[in-house]
Each structure stands twice: as structure tokens, then as C-alpha cells.
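Good morning C.,

I know you're traveling, so I'll keep this short. The sequence:
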Amino acid sequence: MAFSVDEINRNAHLLPGVRLGYQILDNCRYPWSLRAAMSMISGGNHSCKSTGPVRVIIGDASSTQTIMLSRILSPLQVPMISYQASCACLSNRQEFPNVFRTIPSDVYQARTMAHLAEHYGWTWVGAVVVNNDYGLLAVQAFRERAQGSGICLAFFETFTRETLAQDIQRIATTVQESSARVVLVFAWYTDAGALLLELARRNVTGRQFLASEAWSTSSYLLNNPAMRTIANGVLGVAIRSAPIPGLENHLRRLHPSHHPRDALLRDLWREEFGCEPFSLSGSESASLPLCSGAESLQGVQSTFTDTTHLRVTYNVYLAVYAVAHAFHSLLACGPVEDSAMNRSQQQCSSNYNISAAEVLQHLGQVNFTTQIGENFFFQGGDIPAVYDLVNWQASPDGVLTYSTVGRVEGFKLHMEESAIWWATGSKTVPVSVCSEPCPPGTRKATRKGEPICCFDCLPCADGEISNKTDSLTCDRCPLEFWSNDEKDKCVPLPVEFLSFTDAMGITLTTVAVSGAVMTAAVAVVFVYNRHTPIVKANNSELSFMLLMSLKLCFLCSLLFMGQPTHWSCRIQQAAFGISFVLCISCILVKTIVVLAVFRSARPGSDSMMKWFGPGQQRGSVLLFTCVQVIICAVWLSVRPPQPHRNTGLKGSKVILECTLGSVEGFATLLGYIGLLAAICCLLAFLARKLPDNFNEAKFITFSMLIFCAVWIAFVPAYVSSPGKYAIAVEIFAILSSSFGLLLCIFAPKCFIILIQPHKNTKKFLMGKSEKT
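The C-alpha cells, ready to paste straight into the viewer:
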């Protein structure tokens, strides 16, 4: 402070023509602080000559004493500028309108610690604080900043000076038993030292301490050998350091002979040089010799002359300059033109009757640039938050030192990650979590009655994923997608349809083509033997029409295979319905012909075949078939089948299929086929005992029984089969019923034609008939 005032008084541009005076009194505890403050503002007991009382108090260093002094001095509007009172409560301008400070509020260092915890993923943090405004408000600020960041306090322990020994034992046990590996400590350096020593005595290691500015740069702790095992790796928030140009030279020039009444300087001389600086009545030390006077601080390396890390010292420097700039503005100092000298001079107003209210007003408006180029101003009563981040590291000789590893400016954190040594003894960032992070594919589930940082990781359900760490929920996959085995991404579902290339498709295709070839072969046999009696006796025209329809039935099954399209879905059911009706119509007409021929063989019945000749037979087949064509036309025009992507089997596949469109239309199509088959079966059953040369009715009966059995079994099998298997069931029904008709009706005839040609004569057939 003395250096700053002297420097300002020598400055021709700051307060020109005005000299600042100062009075330094010991604060000690509250009563002495109050007495010193009252002495200052009353104008008594000060060493300088001035025209009025001291108007600004630089201090107090303690937050508690600053609060108490402010409550007394605030009604008098006496400005106070503290260089170390960091309590967040002092930012309240309603309560403390006369308090300014050159140290940031504790709120910012607490937020910085929360920012560090968030930055390094420490979600499980313990807190040890002194039980006063300094500690309690800091933890409150930490909690507010940590809220929403997933950071929890594993424990929160407080202590008081009066019961420090007992409290330290309790706190050490808590730290030792807790799973938290990061502990923030808001305490005075002596209290923090007591806790660290107790933990060292218990051999508690691996704890990463976050230090408040009150002990993060304490040389008292750093120089204690017992701290090396427990305090190595401490990461602390420190008051920012800055150089003061000229201060080191000023300190090294100091000599007791120049300041004979400076007791502190005499004590320094005794400690540093081991001699008494000079003899004052009653002050000589009996054990120390007198100094020669040649002693000097020029070559001395001590904490007194070390100006490499000026922290609180720089805050005092700023406080004095803030006062000077406030007075400079208040006294309207500025350049004045001197006509005699023909030049401008710096000059201040000669009105020194300054009120306290004016000083307060101008202090709040201070804005200047320091000698190192920084812009200084007050925000309310505070300054913008700037901190250094320091890291305690063991030097090669085992001595603890601290190194600056980062800087905090407002809410911006600048870290030199590679320069940090952690409590683990390495550069690996320690882990402090209640529960390990939930990997992708899981979600967080909080435990009942425990903090949100303690949770279980539950795997996502089928069809849901989480693709980031610590996800709170699992997201459902879009349509036609499903979760993979790890549940961390959605993958497209496999597309399934009855393909020509898979095993089932190849089998059905082979059977269908074989059936068509067999039908074609039977047709060739019949064409080649069309003039033989057995072909003529079984109505060769209807037989050829039946073979053609059977071939269509075999081939229409191929329309059900392959990827469904708009047109294939419409054609397949229509082709199936019309082909089978054509087939059943031919068989029905053949059955009616058999009955008509039998009736015509009776006396007086010659007219029956006249009314049911070849033209009527073809017309009947056409009529029966046209009914099915009309049914299909109405169905396809009203609600036709459409291709559909079926995702009903979740997690399995996307099934490409054809919807029926109208279930009523499909039921009508099957019902009509069933009706014709039932009528045909009934008529064939009635004609089963006709003469042998007309015994085709027996085979028609068998074929119809097989046909009806197949399609009756088809309905429940089709409804219960999933996906492409439903299509396979329908194809199987088509092929099996077609083979039943082909074999039952045409196999006996082909056997006679090819194996027993001697029976394929008119004489044999007539002879058999006569025997019957």
C-alpha cells in the first residue's frame, strides 16, 4: 500500500497537485478493527497532514469483519474496499451499499469447481466446509451450478473452530469410508491442514482435493513434509496473480535506517541478518549484536522479496489505484491550458470538501487501464471473476510446489491438461462416480431413495435403442427397423417374401412345373389316341378342356411367388379362381353327361342327349366360368388385393404380401368353387354304380373327395400360417388338389392306353358292359 500511494503521488497524470496520505492500523479481531476504522474516519491519530478525515478504508481482509464493519459504517456512507473478503453475501448492494472489493465473490470459485467436476465427469463429490458464510454459501453456489449437470454431493461435512479436533476426526472417517474420490474443501489453510494431516495419519490416499483460494497457494502447507503423500495432485482455485512493475526494486531498497519506526522491517532484519538494525531506547535485543548498516535485501531470496506470484498483494494495489481514480474523477482532474507557458498542464480542482456519498458514487464508476494493460472496473461492488487454477506437484527433490495449469475468466475455463498431475500419481484423470456410466444400449434407472447420481443401467427393450452414454430413455426404432443385438442402433428388418430362389420356392416351382408337364404329357397321349374307344367313351372334348384348365391351375400357382406388385396381387387370385372354376365346370359337365347317357340308355329316354349335346356342354362350362369371372371383376373393381409390407412380427422381418382387399370377395370366390365342387361330388356319387364303361363317375367321386378335403383343410392352415408360409399353404392346396384331379381322372385311362392297350377296344368295352 505504501508503494502504491508513493507511486501515485509521483504520477504527474493521476491526481496532479494532490497528495494521497494513508494510515495503516492493525485489524486483529473485530473490536480492534472497529476501533481502527472509527479512528480513521474521526480524523484522529493519523500521521499525515490533511484537510479532512480519511474517506476510504482499504479492508477488511476477513469477510466476517467486513460484514460487521459495513453494518456500522454503511449509515455513514464510508466506502470500504476489501482485497480478500470473498463472501458471496457482500455482493448484495441493498445490504452492503458501501462495500467494494478487488477479489471475486466466492460464488465464482464455487461455480468454477462445479465446472471442473462437470468437465472431468466427477459426478460423485464430497464437500468439507467451515461452518460460516464462507463455507456454507460456497456449497450453496456449487449446488446451484451443479444442478442439472448430474453432479451430486456424496457427503457434506462442516466444522467449527471451537470443536475443530472432534470435527476433524468425524470428517476424516467420512472421507475414508466414502466412495467419492473427489473432495472439495472450503476452509482456512490451518483448518485444511488439520484435515489433511489426519488423513495422512490414517494413510488415506487416492483422494483428489479441490482447494478454495484460502489454502490453494498456502506456503505453510506446501512446506510441511507431512503433506507430500496426501496433498500431491491438489487442484485449486487461486486468486489470480499479476506483476506489479517496480515493486521488487522498491522492496529490495528498503532499509530500517530510512524507516526507523517500522517494527515489521526491524523484525525482518533480525530474522534475515541475525542482528539488531539500530538501537532504540528500550528496544534493543540483548541476544543480537548491532548491525553494521551495510546489510541489504538486494541479494536476499525470501518470501518478502519474491514478487513472482502476487495475488492478495495485487488486490491491494488495485484497491489503492481504484481510490486514486475515483478521487481523480471526483476532483475533475484534467489538462489546463497555461497561457504564460503556452502549454497544457494537469491540474485538479482545489475543492477538497468531499462527501462520502460522492466518493461512493465515483468508486462505482471507476474504469481505468492498469500498468500491465488490464481494464479495471466494478460491477456493482465486485470485479469480473478471474482466477488461476493451480496444481500441487512434487518436485524431483520431494518438495511440494504449485504450478499454474489454467485460468478462469467469467464462465470460460482454460486448462493445460497435459501440465496436471493428479492425486493418482499420474496424468490419468481420477474417476469419481456413484455408478459407472450407462453404455449405449442401456438407460439410466434411478435407485429409490438415493441421489440421481446413483442409478442402475437397464438394457433397452427389443425394438428400442440408446446411442449415447447415460441415456435417460430408450428410443423406439422407426417402422421397418429393429434394434441390433447391442441395442445401440436401429437396423433395417430383413425383407421376406416367397421367392423363386429360396428352398421352399424352388420346391414349389418344381412341383408346379412338373404338374404342368404331366398334364401336357397326358394331353399328348390323349391327342395321339383320340380315335381310340376309351378316349371317345370319356367325352374327349371335355377331357381336353379339363386338361387345359388343370394346366392353368398348375401354372397359376407360380403367380403367387416372387415379390408382390400392384398387378401380380390382382392377377394371382383371379387366375386361381377362374382356372379352378373352369376345371370344376368341366368335371361337373362330364358328370352330368355320364348321368344323361345312363338315362338315355333306358327305354323312352332318347330325348335327353338331344337336349344336352356338345353345344350345351360347352355353353354350360362357359356359363359356370362366367359367373366366377363376374365375381372376380366386381372384387377387383371395388376392393382389389394390394401389395403390403407387414411388420406385425416385431423384431423378425418385414413380410411382403398381398392383402385380400375384400375378405368378402375372396370368400365368395372360394365359396363358388366349393359350391360347384360339392354339386359335382354329389352327382358323381349318384353315378358311381353305372355300367363299367361309364365308370368315370367313380374316379370323379374320388377326385372331388380329395379336392374338398384339401380345401377344407386349407382354411385353418392359411389363417394360422405367418408370412410367406400362408402363401405356401395356398400354393400347396392348389397343387395338391390339381394333382388329385389329374391322377384320379386321367391316371386310369393313361394306364389302359399305355400299359394295357388290349383293353382299349370297342369289343372289350362292349363285352364288359354286356357282362355287367
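Safe travels,
E.
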